[in-house]
Amino acid sequence: MGDGEAGNGEAEVTVLLRQMRGGDQAAADVLVPLLFRELRELARTYLRREADGHTLQPTALVNEAYLRLIGDQARDFECRSHFIGVAASVMRRLLIDHARRKKSEKRQATESDPADYMSPEKAEELLALNVALDRLAELNERYVKVVELRYFGGLSIEETAEALQVAPMTVKRDWIAARAFLKQQV
User: Fold this and answer.
1) Which H/E stretch holds residue 40?
2) How far apart are CA 61 and CA 75, in angstroms?
3) Angle formed by the axes of helices 168-185 and 120-139, to 10°?
């Protein structure tokens, strides 16, 4: 997605979110498919990093995240970047839950098809990342938000800066510091 497209999508979604907050049902009807596409792209971005044969599909991840996002909270979203930030956080939690379930199922299974679960290495990696992010949150919550937006949300430095309402240079420094911390932890 080019910068112009992101800017246009940002403006369109922001306007629709405001209209929806005002009770405009027609805005909600237009917004729902737009947000669904945004979530699907987030899911694809993250799942591309997973092992081949991963059973969690983008649509399943999107459906679960969408259900959690669009409920009553939808009226609280200020703009597209805010929505993407919250979506990235929700997807992180869903992926962690999935990794835990799959790891538990693997322990309980006596005979399994490898395509039935996230690879043990990926599940362990994701769970270790989650523990490290929890530790990082104790030191600097913004670093965690930067990781969620960049890694789980697939946002650029500029989009992350906009979502967090900080300068792009701040995001660059936070991203470098957070990655250094996580490399030591994982």
Assistant:
1) helix 25-47
2) 22
3) 120
